[in-house]
Amino acid sequence: MKYASFARTALAALFAVGIAFSAHAGTPKVVKKVPPEFPAEAQRQSISSGTVTAKVSIEPDGKVSNVEILQAQPKRVFDRAVTEALMDWRFEPSGEKQTSEIKLVFKNDDE
Question: How many folded domains does the chain comprise?
Answer without folding.
Answer: 1
